[in-house]
Design brief:
By secondary structure, the protein is an alpha/beta fold. It has eleven helices and eight strands. The longest helix is centred in the C-terminal third of the chain and has 18 residues. The chain is globular.
Amino acid sequence: MIEVSIIVPTFNSEKYVLNLCKSIKEQTFTNFEVIIIDNNSSDKTLLKLKKISHSDKRFKYYKISNEGSIAKSRNYGIKKSIGKYIAFHDSDDFWFKNKLEVSIREICKSDFTYHSLRTHNKNNIFDQRKLRSYSLLKNKSFKQLMTIGNPINTSSVLCKREIFEVVKFSEGKKFITVEDFECWINISRNNFRFKRIDKILGYYNISSQNTSVTYVKNPLKFIYIFNKHKKYLLNNNLKILSKNHFRYLMAYSLKKRELKKKYFYYLLFSKILKSKLKITLRLFFTLF
């Protein structure tokens, strides 16, 4: 029986193919299958992948048109997979050799594991930040996700297959680039148990962009998430705190300086906001 299905969406990922295959094939845990879902790449992504992995029967290939929604590729890959556990590997990220081994060991008392990643920036070799993360607590994970933010990078996830018998990635265009965050919120609402592994087990590439720029620049995606899930918050104070949190995320993503300043100024004087200092700093940087 296959233990882990690794879901890998690709789109014009030719320049990452060597690193991608190295990341997966050098894992110390080897009982896995690799589900490649290519979004009609116009480069040599599939050709190179098949050449490198031609003798490795664990690699399986599918080609679809996801219309800019990586959620559609992930859902399709999950449907085609047969592993007991599901792991996600974005084509431009990289796992350390023990990523799967450690994740399998840690998932025994939970349903969903994730870990820290370090940034990799080919344009700045000194940029080696540890990506922000925190532990989601039992019975509080939904509240935390809605008021603190997303601590989970998709390439860090290994989770039980049965989760996706209940939850799917939202394929609607309004959730493009935040479909993973929205999915984790759905998972938390269904009372699955999260486990944060306090280790750095890979790299996150911050210099690439594989998703349509049109959707990346849509700041309302954060408000869509809030509006979809706000009814599940238990009291009015939590709703205000959550609304301000998603307004902050929206403001931070805005490109127009004056509009960004307007939103940060509003948030600075809102009734319920945990971090006035953070807002003050953001407002300051929009002024100077």
